[in-house]
Amino acid sequence: MNHLPRNSFHTTPNALTVGALLCLSVFPSARLHAQTSAMNLNEVVVQSGRLEQKQFDAPASVYTIDANTLRNSGPQVNLSDVLNGAPGVVALNRNNYAQDVQISIRGFGARSAFGIRGIRLITDGIPGSMPDGQGQASTVSMTSADRVEVLTGPLAQLYGNASGGVIQTFTREAGDTPEAKVQMYTGAYGMSRTDWQISQRSGNVGMVADYSTFAIEGYRTNSDTRRQQLNSVITVDAKPDTRIKFIINVFDMPYAKDALGLTATQLATNPAQAVSSALDGRTRKTVKQEQTGVVVEHTVNSDLKLQGRVYGGNRSNLQYQAATVTNPTGAWTGLSRQFEGVGLQATGKAKVLDSQPMNWVVGTDIDHAQEQRQGGNAAGGDKTDTTRNELNEASNRDYYAQANWSLGERYTLTTGVRQSNVTLKSRDDMPITVADPDGSGSVKYKATSPILGLTWHARDNLNVYINQGQGFETPTMSESAYTLTAPTTIKGQFNPNLLASRSKHLELGTKWMPSASTRIDASWFQIQTENEIVTARSSGGKTAYANASGTTRDGFEFALRQQHSSHWRSQASVTFMNATYDNSFSNFVNGTTNNVLAGNTLPAIPKRQLFTSLQWSEKGFSAAGQKPSLGLEAGLDLIARSSMWANDTNSSSSADYALAPGFSQLNGRLRQRHQIGIARVEAYVGVDNLTNKDTISSVIVNQSSKQYFEPGLPRSWVMGLISQIPL
Q: Model pTM greater than 0.85?
């Protein structure tokens, strides 16, 4: 039976042929190297754990996305658009802005029904994730970002309460010349995007202010969205040894409609449809968030640097959910959250044991979030009553330390530890009845997460490293907000019985630069997790969670970047991963007890993923940190993923088809840059899914009505005009 398109990773020879050709294009060519200037890929400084280090020397898997790559992504709406090339990362654009993008790293975060889980988000040093580990990628301003870093592996555990890794974004800083930048895009399905950006420096003060808007009617019925965002960073060099950074971020989404997921039959009939319950219940979400922060850096001397941060903000959202069997009229949920935090960090240098150099860092993170959660019944997308009113709190008090110790010229020892203390509380303010008893409760989670690693600098152009560490991940407040009280009943009450998951990470990797213009990264990893947090049941916008006894992830990641000449460059990344349950357990996803067998694959995690990109520049690519060259640029990307399951039972019967087939997709883009007087003007054209293949953009794990699938877009286009003017 052919419920879903079979354009899978392993059954598309034409696409794979293109992919193979693109991959071949990235391998070294002696003739081209002679014409190529050095890319200095080893000079990029990144966050290696909690310490800054050259990317090439970092004893961890660190992937960077530079400003040119960010610009080439087009309208820069979603964080997922720039993460496809990062090995180990599965970035799924759900085309559903009510639920945000779905991002997982080494399989962590794949369970998320909305937002980000299992991954720490940080912007300009300020946390984008709450103390409980919950984050929202939509609030990251991509139009003002200058760089994105993705840290995976054991060293990422030093950031706490996230087992998958860390995604950090950095806002561009003002240059010496004042500048205004305007971007305007239009595209398929009623998409429009505008961005106004000003950067200016006066003496020791620099300012970047960015205001953007986004609107789309949507490919599917009931999927239109409107949102706007302001992001501003002010840097003050108060003294030669002191720098202060002020961050302001405002995100406003008046509405984002939700078409909900489709069953296999619905998908085959009409992927653009919205299910009837979404139309009847006018399913949608409203979000507004404001956040401010200050980061102070002070250099005491050449061996000691201090950093402090303080931030605060508020977030409110209102969501209308679809009708279910247990609630035939629908429901609503509203949140009003306040959050704040402080962080202190000292970084230094020392010499120990025969004057061997050591870099070290110690610090603490203290964060707190308080929210009022309300909910009730709805009819026709309007509130009818309030049946839930509670005050929730999440807080953490963490301490961490890391040291990189040089053992002679060829070896570096990395040690670190993080002590995490996370508390979740809920106070139920609704009247107590027999049917609805007091749902108040609290739970505390504690964990010590050590890491240990060794790097062998085999040659100046070859590093080999091995790391091991322990991870820690608590349930979020949203995951603790619902309790499965019966096989078919999700009760809106705090669930204190969820355990934190604990993971053991082992990673072996290598970094090799066969030439100044070629960089190869490869790593093998194994992760064993106890008490993995999994979806127990999802229905009508409500999701209840449970703990699985154990899981194992084995994987291999490969990334290659090369500049063939001044006019040609390419990159490729491949991820292989097998994520399975170690032991059998039961859940209640579809109204009956379902037995999840040992060896079953974790849902929403493809076993294979490929990304290749080939780029050409008429005038030649600019060096890092410089303005892009004038003239014409062209790029072609291939994204391919194997199939992935949408439920724990890995069922593919006609009654419960839960396998999203793999696919391969070609995306192309053209960019023309001109200098007109003092202004630099760019014209952009991009086409995604050039071959117009049917795809599944994401899956909703364990959806009770078997509405697992969110369809990807058919062939779609976008055009843009960008202007930069010195002031």
A: yes
